[in-house]
Amino acid sequence: MSDNPTVTRPAEPSPARRRQAREEAAAWYAKMRGQRIAHREVTAFYAWREDACNDAAYSQIERLAQGVRAHADDPRLRALAQAALDRPRPATALRSRLGRRPGFWIAGLSLAAACLAGYVVIGQPFGQTYRTAVGERRVVSLADGSSIELNTDSAVRVRLTRERRAITLDRGQALFAVAHDAARPFVVTAGDTAVRAVGTRFEVYRTGAAVRVTLAEGRVQVTRAHAPMPTMMTAGTRLEVAGKAPARPVAVDVAAATGWTNGRLTFQDAPLREAVDEVNRYSRQKVVLGAGAPANERVNGVFDAGDTGAFARGVAASLNLDSAERDDGSIELLAPTGPAKARS
Q: Does domain 263-334 have CATH number 3.55.50.30?
């Protein structure tokens, strides 16, 4: 009898299961790349992708879409994209047309799903404007392979030329994943601040005259109208600029800072007034600081973006405050009128 332990390998997914995963991956790809996404859908997407078969299918769809972008001028792909738009059941039509060769029909399926979602894979119009409303997020994929994820109530203008990739952030917040192209700099302008990148991942948040840049990967150069020299940033840092005040990059928790991309808001010793301002960006139901509310008290915690009620309840419990819904639907935080409650 052998002393070697028996190793049981996970069963391989059946062909039917892999086919189902590919079809679901194409549908998710379309939703995540071209439509406005509700926070509950983002949560559902990440839960779906925890399955290894689903994750592999989605990764393959992404690789295939990158290949499509690289050959966007191929007339056969143009014809296929048009066919995808013309047919009411793209998955079935393309599978029938391309036969049972998985490598080919998945490529067609990814292209069809991308086209149906408004994902621009065949050419990129110059001067496009993309917006989100309060509480919405949107992912925009550009013809050069870069992507822009817009946060709530944000707007960007995109202009791609052979020499330059120019983005203007008119308002709000966006995360940029930049495809490497040394010959065409990728420049994001917000007010009098310009961020120049080649291949990197960074976020820009514009509020009034203030601009905040958070760098997740790579390096960027930040130029300001009133600064004599540009500022170089490295990964894991943040730069906040306003007017002519001097500024320098500081270390930041990038995962927490960009948590909004997963529908989460993280506060680490944030003044209550700042936390309230941030939460109010994601919902038309607002939180209001009423009489006696400690505006400078520190708030810590992770909250679902858009769930104003949960935030108000959590803060009221941790800071010994009362909360009351007003006639206009907003939630007011007040100093307690009765005996002080014990902090949790």
A: yes
